[in-house]
Amino acid sequence: MERLFELGMLLDRYEDLLTERQRSILRQYTDENCSLSEIAEREGISRQGVRDILNRGSKQLSETEAAVGLVRREAKQTQLIRAFRNRFKDVPLSDADRTAFEAYLAELAAIWEDEDGI
Questions:
Q1: Separation between Cα atoms, residue 9 and residue 106, nearest integer Å
Q2: Contact status, residue 50 vs residue 40, Cβ threshold 8 Å
Q3: Rounded to whole angstroms, how far apart are CA atoms 19 and 22?
Q4: What is the pLDDT of residues 22-80, one digit of tens each?
Q5: In sequence order, which residues have a C-beta less than 8 Å from that of residue 8 and are 6 or more positions away?
Q6: Can you count the helices (H) and strands (E) in the chain?
Q7: pTM
Q8: Mean pLDDT, range 100-111, rounded to an integer
Q9: CA angle 50–55–61, rounded 5-degree value
Q10: Dihedral sign from CA coordinates of 36, 39, 43, 44
């Protein structure tokens, strides 16, 4: 299950590097939780064909992540934002300072949501 989640995260970041068919098959597998047989029936190809496309697409996504590291960096940033929130949740701040602090953290988190910024 963890591998499926990781594959979905890689797909979210790097799907534009795949062919339309690879994207479709990987989305069915990760997002719709379809079996190889279900995908094969939908796509009109063999189960082995689906497996080959999944393997090639997964490998391409993993290699891209190894080279670029967007998913790893996003996870690290999310972890740090969470740590900041936890560390400073009980620190007395004025309402204005607390609002500013939360706004800065929200802006940092939003960087990864802005697909055009990548």
A1: 20
A2: yes
A3: 5
A4: 999 999 999 999 999 999 999 999 999 999 999 999 999 999 999 999 999 999 999 99
A5: 30, 31
A6: 6, 0
A7: 0.76
A8: 90
A9: 125
A10: positive
- Tell me how many degrees the CA angle 45-49-50 measures, rounded to the nearest 5: 90
Do residues 6 and 74 touch, judged by C-beta distance below 8 A? no
Q: Closest Cα to residue 66, out of 10, 25, 4, 17?
A: 10
Q: Which residue has the higher pLDDT, 106 or 118?
A: 106
Rg (the chain; Cα; Å): 19
**Local structure of residue 45 (DSSP, 8 states):** S
By the 8 A CB rule, do 117 and 111 touch? yes
3-state secondary structure of 92: coil
The sign of the dihedral angle between the CA atoms of 23, 28, 30, 35 is negative
